[in-house]
Amino acid sequence: MKRSFPDTSMNRRSFVGGAAAGGLAGGVAVRLVSTEKHDAPELGSPAPPPQARLFTFSGGDGGPWSVVDSRAIVGEPLPAVRRLDIANSPTHTAPPGTVWSLRGVTSNARYITRAEKDDLVAKQAELGRTEATLAALIPIRKSAAWWSLPQDERRAIFEERSHHVKTGMKYLPAIARRLHHCRDLGTNESFDFLTFFDYARADAGAFDEMLAALRASEEWKYVDREVDIRLVRA
Ligand code: HEM
Questions:
Q1: Integer angstrom CA distances of residue 158 from 124, 154, 165, 171, 219
Q2: pLDDT 10s digits, 71-118
Q3: Is 81 in the pocket of ligand 1 (CB under 6 A)?
Q4: Cα(175) to centroid of ligand 1, in Å?
Q5: Which of 56, 127, 184, 193 is the most buried (most CB within 10 A)?
Q6: Using CA atoms, how far apart are residues 127 and 14, in angstroms rounded to an integer?
Q7: From the CA atom positions of the chain, what is the Rg in Å?
């Protein structure tokens, strides 16, 4: 059944019991910390230390998510893998059979206004709802031209001209999200951002519709590598 948007029929759910959908309960030894502690920094709550904000996405033979599709939207693809593991621990060791690992930390917001932040906090759902059996990991790199812009110009492109938050908000709470920053690690990572989303099967079409809108925006002219990895809970 196709759900119309905006949709306010879904309530916010607690993270408890839903952590598995974040990929954290597939028999892999990871330290669980509540989503509040990870999502909140972006929305202004006190940030936990960087090591507690570290997430590692490992593509290979293990983990609770099956990869159903992986394609490069722009730039180099990632090697094909069968499964995805997600760990939230600084002492994480990649599961056997890992082909690639991507790392990022949750962080503070850079662009949103007070009004946008209040809207997001009121409307967003947390990852790991039982019905959210589908997910997408979309690693993104932005060009040198983007990073050379001052903050005010990046904000103008991101929101005033591309309507990133305005577009995304229409799909909350059906789509839950977590943004990880790779540049904050200070190491030479393959991507600048790891974006992760989960949603119910009924919302798969809406997710694709949102992606198409974002990819058609001016902001995406600055994306020089993007890989779209679709997942189903194994
Ligand atoms: C589910 C709906 C979505 C909402 C509500 C949303 C909202 C946001 C917010 C609030 C930020 C942080 C702004 C800041 O730092 O102040 C952000 C950043 C970002 N989002 Fe989204 N987003 C959504 C969907 C997406 C999708 C589908 C993608 C990728 C395909 C995406 C990619 C990104 C990236 C790469 C950034 C970092 C931009 C930068 O700092 O240059 N978002 N988004």
A1: 19, 6, 8, 17, 6
A2: 999 999 999 999 999 999 888 888 999 999 999 999 999 999 999 999
A3: no
A4: 12
A5: 127
A6: 9
A7: 17
